[in-house]
Description:
One of its GO terms (cellular component) is membrane. It is a multi-pass membrane protein. This is Disulfide bond formation protein B. Keywords: Membrane, Transmembrane, Transmembrane helix. This protein has five helices and no strands. By secondary structure, it is an all-alpha fold. It has a single domain (8-111, 136-180), classed as Bromodomain-like. Helix 1 runs antiparallel to helix 2 and helix 2 runs antiparallel to helix 3.
Amino acid sequence: MLQPTTATRRDIIATNAILGATLLIAAVGTVTIGGAWYFQYGLGLAPCPLCLQQRWPYYVAIPLAFVVALGAKANAPRAMLRAGLVIIVLAMLVGAGLGLYHAGVEWKWWEGPTDCAGAGFSPGGAAGGLLKRMQETRVVRCDEAAWRDPLIGLSLAGYNVLISLALAIVALVGFKQSGKV
């Protein structure tokens, strides 16, 4: 049986670190977005503007994680794969920041954006049109958590902070492990 050379072992370890990290990020990210969609479409909890913004980092990280995983399997240059992990780290840190900001708005630690409170409503037009617009307008407030964990009181924004930080750490560990060899 042939023994792999030291260089080959290093490449295998680096590839496995990148592949493992990106597949985990893609899986957990997909489950997280699936959960958000379940709360929205399955349970009827309409997301506020901040909730929707918190999904953006996942929409970057999930496909990028798949691309980096495919690149790792195809033996793409390690520098490119590691750059993809850095982008994932940054995207998930942005996600954690958005989640922290939203959780702070929910806990009334600071003010949220005005479009989350319905302050931007402009009556304009005839009185009948105003009544119709008021009946059709559904304001989803950012400062009221649509759901909280009954055991520990975390909202979905709070869970997003934890998940985003965990995924950023996974990407960072994959980055560091792939550079050690």
